[in-house]
Amino acid sequence: MLNANADQIEALDRANILALLPPVNGKFVVDIGAGIGRFTTVFAQSEASKVVATDFVHSFVEKNRERNSEYANVEWRVGDATGLQFDEGSVDLVFTNWLLMYMSDEETVQFVANALQWLRPDGYLHLRESCSEPSTKKSVDNSSSSSSSSLHNKSQPNPTRYRFSSAYIQLLRNIRHIESESGKIWRFDVQWACSVGVYIESEASKVVATDFVHSFVEKNRERNSEYANVEWRVGDATGLQFDEGSVDLVFTNWLLMYMSDEETVQFVANALQWLRPDGYLHLRESCSEPSTKKSVDNNSSSSSSLHNKSQPNPTRYRFSSAYIQLLRNIRHIEDESGKIWRFDVQWACSVGVYIERQLNWRQVHWLARKVPATDNNAISIPKSVETLAKQFADQWPAEQREFDHRMDVQKPGGRKIFTEFGVDAEALAQRVGRRIWAVETDPFAYRNALTRANQCGDRRVRLAWHFNLESALDFWGNAGQSMPMFEAVVGTEMLAQLQDERIVNKFARMLAGGAQFASVELVKPGKDQSDKFRANLKLLRSRFIVNEEIEVDQLENGYKILIVMAKLRSTKDFWDGDENNQTRQLLMGGF
């Protein structure tokens, strides 16, 4: 790496990539282009059953061997990646890091085909490449889809191919392997494509870094002294002062859990005041329990941690729902104009690395944007700090416990996909054997889902809170996931969320070819309600073929429960024949 901060970048780079990988303990891992072993070491330490580290540079392999000789589960090979051979269906993870950019197009296609052949069912291929330009972003012709110049002298040929990221996605999605003995056909299910965070340049006009620990601030100053746009301050977060409407992003990471309820309310109110219109507040907290998941009483909003139980612990492991409620209820009245502002909470979701490494879904972060308030629920700060703090500390946690109690009482004897309160994501993951992205629009249901996820420990399940379906669609779009993401959608009362053609089109863009749709709908009695349901169904038909409306139950009060089943238009009809019967059985068995 041609960078003065190479060590720091390398460490962050490695952490970013490892956080997204599946668990490798007990797995057979092939580390291709392993170099001196910066990933090999981690795979070996993660108790993989076997790690094969390969590179075509002999000296790199020897350095790798020297670095990892203590691990009995590592084997080293010198050779070109294009000539590698492994038994069909023998490998759990094929891992590459900056490899295909050094191969020709034909070699790249053949390598990906080989990897598909080597992998066991449900095995993984990880690729990481510089796309369209080098990691340094220098001397590149971005008009080329395949190969372009890099740091090489322009008079010299550069064999590196900086391909479009979309070309890799298309290759992965289109390649197939026919199993030699059975004739069974296999493909890649592309789980995600995303940028490596350390290479995203911020270029903020100004950064104010604050901490109340003087030595931390000095270390921060030492580490970032080369940047002219950074200012350092020593002080408590509760005493920070910035001009009204002067800040674009207020970023915190494990902060509010160390504040009292009153201090938390005041800080969030201050952040709303400091931010410019459309500015953002980011929070990240340990909710209900520490990041380590040890020594916690989950029945309270403030609980013990790793401290000795006889010692007081000032840390507050609050409910995630309480933070959502606080963000949504607080208001700021502008000094001069009297204009009222609020937070539009964009999302709440778990920090992925804690799911993968510690099976902990309760490490939660939120993003909220400052927008004008159109309601009359203006809250005058500081007069109402005490009132809001009371809600934050007592009322909202009490409502959460009541919700949790109702969920426990209504819990069916077996694991059902559909419950009285929605879709059981873990039960669905077990039935279909796929990764599940579950969205809750109720803060209490979201917190309860996090608890259930921690109890079940199924890494295939990801959970998020959004205000509505459109907010979730915008989140996926803003995250760079413009490619189709989902093969199926199962939900409750989704027709009301698909309330206009614009949202229906957003929704359709997130679905893969042949995507299936099923929603449990509660139809209220009366002609007006029936007409509204039919209008929503007609809107769905603009992009979907509605195959069935199955009446599941009719309640005493005249309400009907229906399942609406559909598929995305212009795709293979996945609802024909046996697959249709299997899908119906899956959904009907969910009640």
From TrEMBL:
Transmembrane segments: none annotated. Signal peptide: none annotated. Keywords: Transferase. InterPro entries: Methyltransf_25, SAM-dependent_MTases_sf. Pathway: Lipid metabolism; Phospholipid metabolism; phosphatidylcholine biosynthesis. Pfam families: Methyltransf_25. Its EC number is 2.1.1.103. GO terms for molecular function: phosphoethanolamine N-methyltransferase activity. Residues 133-159, 289-314 are annotated as: Disordered. SUPFAM superfamilies: S-adenosyl-L-methionine-dependent methyltransferases. Residues 29-123, 204-279 form the Methyltransferase domain. It is an enzyme of class 2 (transferase). It catalyses: phosphoethanolamine + S-adenosyl-L-methionine = N-methylethanolamine phosphate + S-adenosyl-L-homocysteine + H(+). Residues 297-310 have a biased composition (Low complexity). This is phosphoethanolamine N-methyltransferase. It comes from Globodera pallida.
